[in-house]
Amino acid sequence: MSSVLAPYWEFAKKAFAREATYRFEVFTEMGSLVLRVYLLRCLWTALYAQNAAPFNLPLHSMITYATVALLMSLVLEIDGTRLIREKLRDGTIATDLMKPIVVPFYFFSDGVGRTLLYAVLVVPTLLVALLLVHVDVPAPATLGVFALSFLIAYCVNFVLNFCMNSIAFWTLETFALQLIVRWISDLLSGQIIPLTFFPGLIGRTLFALPFAAIYSTPLLIYVGITPRDAWGAALTVQLAWLAVFGTLAFVIWQAASRRIVVQGG
Amino acid sequence: MPPIIATRDLRKVFRTVRRRPGALGALRTLVSRDYEERVAVAGVSMAVEAGELIGYIGPNGAGKSTTIKMLTGILAPTSGEIRVAGIVPSEHRKENGRNIGVVFGQRSQLYWDLPLVESFELLRAIYAIPQDRYRRNLDEFVELLEMQDLLRTPVRQLSLGQRMRGDFAAAMLHDPKIVYLDEPTIGLDVVAKEAIRNFIARVNSERGTTIILTTHDLADVERLCRRIVLIDKGAIIYDGDVERIKNEYGRYRTLVVHFCERVAAPSLEGAELLSVEEATARFRFDRNRERADRLIRQASERYALEDVSIEEPDLESIIRRIYIEGYARSPEEAPR
């Protein structure tokens, strides 16, 4: 086993080390996050002062929701598959294809390595954020299910990004497209506004979209809106989306590698 | 023993979108596309024995890179057969990957932000190189390429020559049977070029590594290769000894005559005028038919001379002529 997985573990380690060389970027990322935590606290406090608490989400839960969402974004907004686009532009993907490795797994482990660095940063960022806001801590069981749900969310997010970045095999550039999808998903995934706030048909539609599997599902588990007996169903829906986009990513990759092999990329 | 690389009637045809000229054309290309076929490799058959060091050369767009891509397995041929160390590369890309190493002069496979040695360690994991063999190879390459001080340096801080040395070590760490080198000395200074050439020669002779060298610097080929394969417009036009092609084409020498003053149309019997520039004329003569000393005497009788020199043809000028005129088995018959 070890020799099969060794290269991918090594890819992750190198990606971690590589990202860590950009110290300035890492620290500005943390700083901006703490700032956003504070701004969102102000925003929600002001909004709640005007209205009665919607549904069963009191202000302290809302601030917890917003803060955890921002900490999640530290990990989720790392586009772990950006490497595909970069490698296509400079042509080094050819050298990777000449190695005895499964290239999509290489991209995945590189993404994991990058993400791990930021995951480590969650801790100090949280500590600083706690100076500014109060965050509720749920029961250990809830925390555990949240962690599991977050892990699946990470994978859904990864395959979604993988699909989008793979479009670069045909177009070489996907930046504008990604910006659009990023905006839509920020709004529709429940990162900024809990999906339970959206009324009627709109709310139901948003819950049916794959973006909900990224932020909304783990967050609603965390703040306790998803009851204990609905955990199983929530995770199942997430896994279903993972399967759908995982398959799509596989199909796209097959087509892309066929294109390289036939057209020379 | 069967050849380590064998191709038969290898062809590659690309289908590309025909682009229309101009901004309006570009807009039309977006909407309606028609395709054209471009033959990149048109029936290449060759056999390479294990341990050979071959110069694979040809002008830009001749089909060199396409052939190399097919040999590495990242490009599937349109038709024809390839076997590399007994494997069909495009069908078994990963297995083939274990047998080969590649160096591209224009792009690096090293991790830009990390110290050089980190890229080597990554390769150790990728190819599952046993620790002792890894150490042995690394030590040897570090010594041969004088990289002692470079291992801890981030690749982005290395000079081009230093980086190339790193890329060479990276390509050879897993003891590949075959190494493809694509323009490995491009942009290097003379000292760095020589270091790289020595390394290539040494790896070939001591480890018996089969090497396919693609380059535009024919000094690389002259220094390293006994055999060259010359490709043009997708087809092989010469496959054989470097010496033979030099002898065949090397029959012609150039006599360079510097006159004391401008001469309108200089001529010498037994030599063909190639060019006149200011007060310098260049004549070509066949060394089997004419002697240099007789030509010089003839020239000095006709004109006032300042200086005279004779140029031996180097591989570069020979190849240049073949690119322009095409290869003919006996060069005299080649159209001028």
Please provide a written account of the structure.
The complex is a heterodimer of chains A (265) and B (336). Chain A is mainly α. Chain A has one domain. In chain A, helix 2 runs antiparallel to helix 3 (59-76). Chain A contains twelve helices and no strands. With 336 residues, chain B is α/β, with parallel strands linked by helices. Chain B folds into two domains: 5-246, Rossmann fold; 251-312. Chain B has eleven helices and 13 strands. Chain B has a six-stranded mixed sheet, with helices on both faces. In chain B, strands 11-12-10-13 form a four-stranded antiparallel sheet, covered by helices on one side. Chain B is globular and about 75 Å long. Mean pLDDT of chain B is 88; it is low at 330-336. Chain A binds chain B through residues 3, 6-7, 9-11, 14, 17-18, 21-22, 90-92, 94-95, 97-102, 260-264, and chain B through 14-15, 66, 69, 72-76, 90, 93-95, 97-98, 100, 102, 104, 107-109, 111, 113-114, 118, 121-122, 125-128, 154.
